[in-house]
Amino acid sequence: VTGTPSQHPLITARRTRWALDPGHEVTDEQLRVLFDAGRWAASRGNLQPARFLVGRRGTDTFDALLDVLMPSNRVWAQAASALAMGMAVTTVDDRANRHAWYDLGQACGQLALQAVAMDLEVHQMAGFSAADARVRFGVPDDCDPVVAIAIGRPGPVDALPADLRAKQERPRTRLPLDQVVFTGRYGTPAFP
Ligand SMILES: Cc1cc2nc3c(=O)[nH]c(=O)nc-3n(C[C@H](O)[C@H](O)[C@H](O)COP(=O)(O)O)c2cc1C
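A: This is the predicted complex of the input protein with flavin mononucleotide.
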């Protein structure tokens, strides 16, 4: 369920964790490496619509990002070493870029795999208020706050509330490949 032996270890090792080490400090250099990995993602026409805001724990940016998270995410994300937000610039020369979100996602995917290589946890979150974030950080109208990101070091699961511990320990599942990859006609499995 968590990948096959032929997959790259970066992919099989990546997983989402709720237990973060509240004593861990991430360095500016580590954050620079992470976001640089995102910066080098492919994008439509090399338009590079991905934008990020980031703050280490103890900074005003971190506190403001924690504030805009849904309470259910705030519980565990407060132990992150840094919090970030991914945004997509959705217009170019007054025309909509409908791949902006795709490109942001791809940048976040690269960032997440780079984190695995550095023994860091990247936990992406839809559970935050984009409207509040827009106001708090002065995000311009053509830029869409899409995802909040907790960055940290995995911590002990027994420090988690029971519901979150259960989430982290549940088996990871995926749709089978025959429901995802088609050939000839939509719905016809390429790999039955
Ligand atoms: C765009 C996005 C939004 C997510 N939002 C949340 C969230 O708000 N809170 C949370 O605890 N996890 C969130 N997750 C984590 C997912 O639940 C997790 O990635 C999914 O269950 C698959 O597990 P895996 O990452 O271990 O493969 C989000 C993940 C993504 C990619």
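Residues 70 and 128 are 5 Å apart (CA to CA). The longest helix spans residues 100-117.
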